[in-house]
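Hey Z.,

So I finally got round to the calcium ion thing we talked about over coffee. Here's the setup:
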Amino acid sequence: MNKKTNIVRKANEMIEKPRDVGFLTKVSMYLVTVFVCLGLIIVSQGIKQHFVRELEVNADNLAKGYSHSLSKSIEASSVVEQLIHDKLLGISSIITDIDRDLVNQDLIDLARQMDVGEIHIYDVDEILTISNVEAFIGFVPPENHAVRDFSKSDMSFYIEPIRANMITGEFYLYGYERMTDGRVVQVGINALKVEKLISGFHLNNMLNDMMTHEDVAYVNYISSDGIIIGSSSGADIGKVLETEEKKPLSMALDIGEFQLVPKEKYHEFIEPVYLSGTETGMLLIGMTLDGTRESIKNMIGFVTFVFVMIYLAAIMVIYLLHDKNRRLFSLAYEDDITNLPNAKFLRRMLTYELRQSPRDKLALIMVHVPRFSKITMAKGYEEGDTILQDIAKNISAQDIEGARLFRYSEEKFMMLIRNYEEKETLVQIMENLSQVIPLQEERAAEKRYNTLAFGALEIGDKYKGEVDALKDVLIALNNVDDDGSKSYVFFDEVMEMNITRENLIENELKLAIENQVEDIIVMAYQPLIDAKTEKIIGLEALARMNSKMYGMVSPLEFIQIAEKNGIMADLGKLILEKAVTFEKKLLEEGYGIRVAVNISPIQVIQDDFVSTVKSIIEKADIDPLFIEIEITESVFLSNYELVNRKLKVLRDMGLLVSIDDFGTGYSSFSRLKELHVDSVKIDQYFIRRITKILPDELITGDIIRMVHKFGLTAVAEGVETIEERDYLISQGCDVLQGYYYSRPMFEEDTLSYIRKQNE
Ligand code: C2E
Ligand code: CA
Ligand code: CA
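And the result:
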């Protein structure tokens, strides 16, 4: 069971592991090549075996076919022996029967009658005394003559192998028979006659006959005691094949111990020959391999051709599949500007890597191109693409060990590094990479921007998923200072703490929104002062966060956290409700001054923004005239037309609208004309400059005049000093706000401030 799940896991891993398309193709190519090669080898081997087997069967059939005749042939020699024996017996019994002294004429008659060439009688002294051939009479055989050997022996008859007659030189087959009186009868049959007699069964003839068969190169007949009795070549007849003790002859023959011809040219087969049931010898058939070779060659040639065709077809199919997969892969996982794998692929890869255990040492380096969007805005997208391609090329050219580069987002690359040595290695990598400059020298607007910025993260064991790792490396990058003093930052504990701070603040904000903890979000109010009367005409509502964890948290921080985490719309609603409730209280106490509420762009773009504002005001049952909203110009960036229409609806209801932080963002006077707003709040930046810049360089007054030109009210915020107040009043500014008059105050203090003013 355990094993099975293990296998399943392994299989899943194989499937899940994100790979390049090339990998699969390589594997299939490899497999196809191996299969085709193996197949070819096996089939070739089969073909060879098939043909050798065929040859063997041929030899076998041949041997079997001749085996019968061969037995006959062997029988034939004994028949001849028998014949001579019979003749000998016949002749000697006739001679014995003649009861008078034999004369030569008797033997002449007998020879004719018995159809033999010679009949001689030797007396007891071994001298030829009577003969059918007169010339031989008186012949005294030499010492080693067969007659002498025979008469000394105790044999009753003996047949000598064919030999030449000592006197005439003609070849004869001689037989000897001892008569009762001790004399010896010799009968000789002319060899030619013997030959004629047995030619039909002649062993060598038969062997030669076998030779006429295709593929048969030579045939030998070997007796069971190892003597070559017959040979198609005739050369080796009489040779005795001696084997080692205990090794049967057939085995020695089988392994080619006696093979005289080259083994690679001839194949020898052994076939036993039986004579009336018992093995009398063996046929040794030598087959030439030439024909078989030729057939094998042709067949293998054909098969190879077929396999090559199959191989080519398979490769073609793999290539087409590869091409298709490559295109699909590139669509899904590749960035088409740099051809690098994209963020999606990185996430898959990271997910996979983080799931392994044990897993490789991993690090992420985020590579950021500063001011990239500015460059594309100024020089166009083509220039931007070229820059990205250059960077991708130059980073790849560094060929960093274990590293893989991804195009992560617009102006960010990501590098995943596996099995690096230590943190210092990463530092070295980033220092080397900072030599890669995004812009050509002459294109760089400012040198300090012409270097890449890096965020680095060592992915420790606490990281379980890719989301956290990607988030933290981004945090590290965000901690790189803009001044270019240091181009890389590692993610560390402090940043991590900041992150947990963000989470905790987010959680507290959620509690506040869900109305579970009353006093987390508290409103402070800062007076808006009429520049002419220097009397309070309104209040700006500024949210304060009283964190259980961190004490007072600046709105600059918690508003951003709310925006980032998708709770700004709800938080904004809460703030608006609190401000409207306070306004109702003011009105109930008889103070007809308005409250201005800061609205985040995220609130404005909500579909239900207008209806939400409307319902809150209606619920409090107050005149919309006493509510003002402050929005920044950035809100128009998203959908200018739609936002402007929403503002019109609100103004038609009676609300006031002002543009906050004017002059900092994407300010344009030309647009002021079209916007449905009542007043413009000039950013503190222009107020601060009043005491710092020479009067004739100051543009603050010009801004006020321009605002007036569009029929709008000019508001100055952040007025701290009397000089600023004097200047602004002298330039005709309508409304003033700042520490010079009052800091933001909580409700009670605000109320007593207003009461005092009205005394
Ligand atoms: P802001 O809308 O520009 O608000 C004015 C900021 O200037 C306030 O800071 C205020 O306390 C500060 N300020 C007022 N007079 C002076 C002065 O004479 N000198 C100096 N140096 N500062 C002065 P605060 O309350 O910290 O708010 C910061 C920003 O947070 C606000 O800028 C606004 O953008 C945002 N914010 C505050 N409350 C809310 C809110 O309820 N909703 C939204 N969406 N944003 C808010
Ligand atoms: Ca404001
Ligand atoms: Ca402001």
